[in-house]
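Re: [ENG-882] Designed sequences occasionally contain unexpected residues at chain ends

Forwarding the minimal case from QA. Structure tokens:
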């Protein structure tokens, strides 16, 4: 199902109205172990199973694609001739019917003020490492009210961890920032400031750090990235600028996903798309074996996600593509398959948005 909806901010929350009071009441502003838990209405949690959510072993400069089929390069002319009435998701549902697994797509087009949603199945999917953008946003929010400006007022250790968590998807850095901010309780409370509607933050267990098993929707991920990409009351300009800088500095081996299309259609491993100086892409990707698979090896299906902000060449949008049940295969074949699916979606959306968008028409009330 594809939906086009007008953006409306139903709830505006600030540090003073909820965030600061709620976190202070829970004893979480100082980080470390959480104090008394907030009410069940304020916190929705889910326990995580043991799973690595970072880079799969063997992925790097010498990474070779697996044996599963990948999507071919999209000819832009095949999309650009589509009717304007078809919208930016024209052809995406048809394309996804040719792919294995389950995909969910959310797109916010800043030029029209509309959000477009497409879902092929499950209401929520696992975040894997895209939750690191959310963890980063929490730390930026915490420090923006302190003396000075971000990043200068961030302690060196926090800057170091944020940089490694975002640009290299380092799991040790993410686990440190997640734990010392107060874990799933704090991040759940922070997400009420976004707000996210269906995200359940994964909690630490005796055998797993938790955050990688957060469940979410593509729409919630667009909401999080929008707080970084556009002016709002939750994140200050200096916090947003630093967060976007980190997301624009992801290492080449992790530049796959929503960069394909904006940075051209040559998007193959190991370095994926080559940056186009005329187009800014700030992204965070995530990948892991599905935690419901007991073996946690290449016999397991994959979760592969890509989220971020794209601006340039007449476009300005936030895109989230989540894919689950990417087919198992030898080595990282399932991982590669998920990347290929996402890049096929991203190419089509980029090409569709080459058409002059129709501005949002506000009809007078009857």
């Amino acid at each position: 199902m594809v939906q086009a909806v007008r953006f409306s901010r139903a709830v505006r929350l600030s540090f003073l109205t909820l965030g600061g009071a709620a976190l202070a009441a829970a004893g979480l502003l100082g980080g470390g172990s959480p104090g008394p838990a907030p009410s069940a209405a304020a916190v929705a949690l889910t326990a995580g199973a043991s799973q690595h959510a970072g880079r799969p072993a063997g992925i790097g400069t010498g990474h070779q694609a697996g044996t599963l089929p990948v999507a071919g390069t999209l000819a832009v002319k095949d999309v650009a001739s589509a009717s304007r009435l078809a919208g930016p998701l024209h052809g995406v549902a048809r394309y996804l019917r040719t792919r294995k697994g389950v995909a969910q797509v959310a797109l916010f087009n800043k030029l029209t003020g509309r959000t477009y949603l497409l879902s092929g199945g499950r209401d929520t999917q696992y975040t894997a490492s895209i939750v690191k953008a959310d963890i980063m946003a929490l730390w930026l929010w915490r420090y923006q009210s302190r003396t000075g400006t971000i990043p200068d007022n961030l302690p060196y250790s926090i800057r170091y961890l944020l940089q490694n968590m975002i640009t290299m998807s380092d799991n040790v850095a993410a686990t440190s920032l997640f734990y010392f901010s107060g874990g799933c309780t704090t991040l759940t409370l922070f997400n009420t400031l976004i707000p996210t509607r269906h995200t359940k933050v994964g909690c630490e267990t005796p055998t797993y750090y938790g955050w990688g098993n957060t469940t979410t929707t593509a729409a919630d991920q667009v909401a999080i990235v929008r707080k970084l990409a556009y002016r709002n009351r939750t994140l200050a300009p200096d916090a947003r600028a630093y967060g976007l800088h980190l997301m624009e500095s992801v290492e080449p081996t992790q530049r796959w996903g929503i960069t394909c299309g904006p940075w051209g259609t040559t998007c193959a491993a190991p370095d994926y798309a080559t940056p186009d100086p005329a187009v800014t892409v700030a992204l965070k990707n995530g990948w892991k074996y599905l935690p419901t698979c007991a073996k946690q090896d290449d016999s397991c299906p994959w979760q592969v996600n890509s989220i971020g902000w794209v601006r340039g060449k007449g476009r300005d949008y936030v895109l989230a593509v989540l894919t689950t049940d990417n087919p198992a295969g030898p080595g990282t074949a399932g991982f590669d398959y998920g990347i290929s699916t996402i890049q096929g979606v991203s190419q089509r959306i980029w090409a569709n948005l080459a058409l002059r968008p129709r501005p949002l028409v506000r009809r007078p009330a009857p």
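QA comment: On inspection the terminal residues look reasonable. Residues 2-6+52-352 form a domain with the Beta-lactamase fold (CATH 3.40.710.10). Proposing we downgrade this to a documentation issue.
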